[in-house]
Design a protein that fits this description.
Rossmann fold, alpha/beta, 348 residues, 3-stranded mixed sheet, 37% helix
């Protein structure tokens, strides 16, 4: 199998390529990435790209057809990756996360790619109350990032209906866990970094918003399933919530779990904060049914343990980490201020 992975040099892709190499040893793996975060390594070992057969650099808005020809599958990770970046670069988020994604999928289909795996998000449920959301429930995207995922899913389903390809939209829970390119602009990772560097965790909300979590290793496991899933029973297109029912947490529970793993850590919650509208519980029963052999294996305690050990191994002790390059928006802004990227996020 020949597999193209877009956005392979990010937080998720760095772990994905290691799992694909391990589980699909004979596969031919090709990476395509802008290189925005290539230097943001948090490993003392080998760079993850050693697991690839070939690495290409470029803009997903203009990926050449030559890279798609002969591919059996595409795993599409390349995207504006979170709400802060999406809010600052709203039009570019639409251009990259939606327009470029659909152009990529359409050209992949035209060039004979059989499977297209799209990294979507449970954030599309937005403010969803207390009921766990299923795939056919109403969606309520509140940010440019979430809206881009909704639009892309809808277009992929339509494209799939008029093609012979198999497409899978994986609606991932909130990512967490250690990676060779760690991000700290994720709720659990932020709490661990704060506990290690300051001995305290400050919850800016009132602590009640719900977040489903999934470790980055289990995200990779889900993409492996999408590459190899049976299509006869499921259909050529499926959108599925990816995570575990036992991993629906309120933010305050995450803070307390980190504090328990790092004794002496204090937790303060802003009980007077206005409600955080990004609150949703998610039902994962469809994923449990469709992918029984690829269910999440890394639970909260293990994710915290691996984050703590991984960050301590790096000698992490940065009290000002929210101003560092481990926050993805900071990295992009540094590229722009130092005249490496323009405001359209294109290399100069």
């Amino acid at each position: 199998m020949k597999i193209l992975i877009t956005g392979n040099m990010g937080y998720v892709g760095s772990e994905l390529v290691k799992m694909l190499r391990k589980e699909l040893a004979q596969a031919y793996l090709v990476g395509f990435d802008s290189g925005f975060f290539a230097h943001c390594l948090t490993t003392g070992g080998r760079v993850p790209e050693i697991n690839l057969d070939c690495q290409h650099f470029g803009d997903i808005r203009s990926i050449p057809d030559s890279l798609l020809k002969g591919m059996d599958a595409v795993i599409h990770l390349a995207a504006i990756s979170n709400d802060p970046i999406g809010n600052k670069f709203e039009q570019i988020t639409k251009d990259i996360n939606f327009t470029a994604s659909i152009n990529l999928a359409r050209r992949a289909v035209e060039l004979g790619v059989e499977r297209f795996v799209f990294a979507s998000s449970c954030s599309m449920y937005g403010y969803a109350g207390d009921d766990a959301r299923k795939e056919n429930d109403a969606i309520n995207p509140l940010t440019a990032y979430a809206r881009s995922k909704v639009a892309t899913e809808q277009a992929l389903e339509s494209l799939c209906a008029s093609s012979s390809a198999y497409m899978t939209s994986l609606r991932f829970s909130t990512a967490c866990g250690m990676s060779d390119r760690l991000r700290l602009d994720l709720v659990l990772n932020d709490f661990v970094a704060s506990a290690i560097s300051t001995g305290s965790i400050t919850v800016l909300s009132d602590g009640t918003p719900w977040r489903p979590l999934i470790d980055v290793k289990d995200m990779a496991r889900a993409m492996l399933w999408a590459l190899t899933r049976e299509s006869e029973k499921i259909g050529r297109y499926v959108a599925v919530n990816v995570g575990s029912s036992v991993q629906n947490y309120q933010v305050r529970d995450l803070a307390n779990a980190v504090a328990s793993a790092l004794p002496g850590t204090t937790v303060s919650v802003n009980t007077a904060a206005p409600p955080d509208k990004r609150s949703y519980r998610v039902d994962f029963s469809l994923y449990e049914k469709l992918a029984p052999d690829h269910q999440p294996q890394v639970m909260l305690e293990q994710s915290i343990k691996e984050l703590v050990s991984g960050m301590k191994a790096l000698g992490f002790n940065d009290k000002n980490f929210r101003s560092s390059g481990l926050m993805r928006l900071n990295t992009l802004e540094a590229h722009i201020s130092e005249h490496r990227l323009n405001h359209e996020l294109q290399w100069l």
